[in-house]
Design a protein that fits this description.
The complex is a heterodimer of chains A (298) and B (336).
Chain A: H1 3-35, H2 42-59, H3 64-87, H4 95-115, E1 124-125, E2 134-138, E3 141-144, H5 145-167, H6 169-179, H7 181-186, H8 191-217, E4 219-220, H9 226-239, H10 244-263, H11 270-284
Antiparallel strand pairs in A: 1-4, 2-3
Helix pairs in contact in A: 1-5, 1-8, 1-9, 1-10, 2-3, 2-8, 2-9, 3-8, 5-6, 5-8, 6-8, 9-10, 9-11, 10-11
Chain B: H1 2-24, H2 30-55, H3 63-79, H4 91-118, H5 124-142, H6 161-180, H7 182-192, H8 194-199, H9 204-230, H10 240-253, H11 258-274, H12 279-296, H13 309-323, H14 328-331
Classes of the chains: A mainly alpha (298), B mainly alpha (336).
């Protein structure tokens, strides 16, 4: 295996992992773009999505694609529910209050999972939904079927999101609210339902990310959302928080970097990489790759 | 005023001394001694977190990470007799020096984490401190010298009640003076309105970093105490949930109220100890309490007032006025 082949192989692995980060990062970035809140519970939505998928596949024996759709719908509702109950009352409160609520929600969901008897704290094996076959793309560079599935689903969802945001009325409303909430309201846009819709979209994408992650890792556990959630946030910052293409680019970049570090034999430092990137980006270019520099006005 | 604070100090030391005596004669048994010491440790942690989250208005959720840094550093120094401190210094003095080193290392790490994030406005500190806490845990898990996942054992139990009590008093005095100083007022100005504070000529980054580093220092001390109290430390002792416990103390006590943090630290440590058997249920309740307080009372349960004699007098007066209207005023005279 030559160096070039190895690099190509790691690139493929990185993009596959990165597309999962990108799916989660999209939720972060949209929610941040619209109400300037880091939704710490987003990683938990990702985890819950994986669990819903797991139960649909094991209990109801439904095919993967239906499980994916149901999990996305479930998490979209969960997102709306969360926004209405926990974040909406705090929209005008100090930012720190909303952040603490988000942290509280995250802890709540994690420990609820541990507390529920039929979930518990031990990991569960995610069923094989796809026969793992290896395709040799070029000599010595392989593409496995689960990676194709991950990439395919992620790509379809990202294109769908792009369509919703840029071609539909609701997407236009989302963009308007994220630019100026008050002006949007004056133009007759229902700000509340737009924000709820944003949460629903982001949560649905996180659920899809959760299932794809579970498919490629083969197991799910109550705290599986913490690290991917954190890394997805780093991806969002890397790409420029609030920017949708930025979240995708950031996710891919982080996935590739992480895989490169593991491949270089420093897999112990994998998790630290994201953190180092966050610190670096905050030092060098806090607005991220695609971010616009906006002055805060009083 | 001087006289009053003297009396206050006297009362504080008398309480500590009496508790110490009660422990010595065996009236308070080992278990409660342990809990009392733990309470003092959590007071240090909560009061220092209150400086960032309550006084300065920044949102840090990686306090356990700084505690871990302090705990492991201090433990390394007391366990290895030849490391930097001459071996002749042993026992309690060594413990205090190790604590100071642990605190300083935590403060330095706090500086490294705070510098890039506190320059910026917004919520980056929250996510950075969260990430920092996780990374520290991962690094400790992989560091064989301190035992990795199985933990670092055989730390000598230097942290007795009296010494930790004194440390807690010192912490509270230092931080209260900091809050009352011009530095503290600058921090409060940043909390109230960062843009306005900057316009008034306050170097917001500088003050935020000072507060953050100071808080990290005391968190490190609290961690060092924890190590010498439990005698064994594991990376999972400093998980995110510990940060949340401390955060809840600050929120329950009222964001920005030092005395509130103390009261809440006492209360929550006792509750946590008594609910030890129901770990995940306890955390569920804690998180719900956190959410509900934020939704219905964002300034924290007790608000940002301090407990003081005039404040208590006022409260009692109001209470009496409510029950027997009009006549209450004279009856409060007796409560002084």
């Amino acid at each position: 295996m030559t160096l070039g082949q190895q690099i190509l192989q790691q690139l493929i692995n990185g993009i596959s992992l990165g597309s999962v980060y990108a799916l989660i990062a999209l939720g972060y970035t949209m929610v941040y773009g619209i109400i300037r809140l880091i939704n710490f519970a987003h990683g938990e939505v990702f985890m819950i999505g994986a669990f819903v998928g797991y139960f649909i596949i094991t209990l109801f024996k439904l095919p993967f694609i239906l499980a994916l759709i149901f999990a996305m719908i479930f998490c979209a509702l969960l997102g709306i529910f969360m926004e209405r109950l926990a974040y909406k009352p705090l929209r005008d409160a100090p930012r720190i209050a909303a952040l603490m609520t988000a942290v509280g929600l995250s802890i709540f969901f994690q420990n609820l999972m541990v507390y529920l008897k039929w979930i518990g704290a031990s990991p569960k094996a995610f069923p094989r939904v796809i026969e793992i076959t290896r395709f040799e793309v070029i000599e010595n560079v392989y593409l496995t079927s689960d990676k194709i599935l991950t990439l395919g689903v992620a790509l379809v969802l990202m294109l769908a999101l792009q369509y919703v945001v840029h071609k539909t009325k609701m997407g236009k409303a989302m963009r308007a609210v994220s630019q100026d909430k008050d002006a949007a309201q004056l133009m007759g846009i229902n700000v509340d339902s737009t924000i709820s819709f944003t949460f629903a979209l982001g949560s649905a994408l996180a659920a899809a990310g959760g299932i794809l992650y579970a498919v490629s890792y083969g197991k799910i556990i109550y705290n599986m959302g913490t690290m991917p959630g954190l890394k997805a946030f780093v991806s969002a910052v890397l790409g420029g928080i609030g920017s949708i293409p930025g979240a995708v680019a950031g996710g891919m970049l982080l996935g590739i970097t992480e895989n490169a570090v593991s491949a270089a034999g420093m897999s112990m430092l994998r998790d630290a990489v994201a953190f180092a990137i966050l610190i670096l980006i905050l030092l060098i270019k806090p607005t991220g790759i695609f971010g616009k520099n906006t002055r805060e006005k009083v | 005023m001087k006289f009053r604070s003297l009396i206050k100090m006297g009362v504080v030391f008398a309480v500590g001394f009496v508790l110490h005596l009660l422990i010595k004669v065996g009236f308070i048994n080992g278990y409660y001694d342990h809990i009392l010491t733990k309470i003092c440790m959590f007071i240090i942690a909560a009061v220092s977190l209150n400086l960032i989250n309550g006084i300065c208005g920044q949102f840090s959720i990686g306090h356990a990470g700084f505690m871990a840094v302090g705990a492991y550093t201090a433990a390394i120094f007391t366990k290895n007799p030849d490391l930097f401190i001459p071996a002749a210094i042993a026992g309690m003095p060594r413990f205090f020096i190790a604590l100071a080193i642990g605190g300083s290392v935590a403060a330095f790490v706090g500086f490294l984490v705070g510098l890039p994030t506190l320059r910026l406005r917004g919520d980056y500190l929250a996510i950075t401190t969260l990430g920092f806490g996780e990374i520290i845990r991962v690094l400790l898990l992989n560091w064989k010298f301190v035992g990795g996942a199985s933990g670092y054992f055989g730390i000598k139990p230097y942290a007795n009640f009296l010494s930790v009590y004194i440390l807690a008093v010192i912490t509270v005095v230092v931080l209260s003076n900091f809050i009352a100083s011009s530095y503290g007022r600058a921090c409060i100005a940043i909390r109230e309105d960062e843009v306005a504070a900057e316009t008034m000529g306050i170097n917001t980054t500088k003050y935020k970093i000072i507060a953050f580093v100071l808080a990290a220092f005391f968190a490190g001390i609290a961690g060092g105490i924890y190590a010498h109290l439990m005698q064994a430390i594991m990376p999972r002792d400093f998980s995110f949930l510990v940060s949340i416990d401390i955060l809840l103390m600050v929120v329950l006590g009222g964001l920005g109220s030092t005395s509130g943090s103390i009261v809440a630290a006492i209360f929550l440590t006792i509750v946590t100890e008594s609910l030890r058997r129901f770990q995940s249920l306890r955390v569920i309740i804690y998180s719900l309490v956190l959410i509900f307080i934020m939704i219905f009372r964002p300034q924290g349960l007790l608000g940002n007032q301090e407990f003081s004699t005039p404040m208590l007098k006022e409260k009692i007066r109001l209470l009496f006025n409510r029950t027997k209207s009009g006549k209450g005023h004279t009856s409060t005279e007796g409560t002084e």
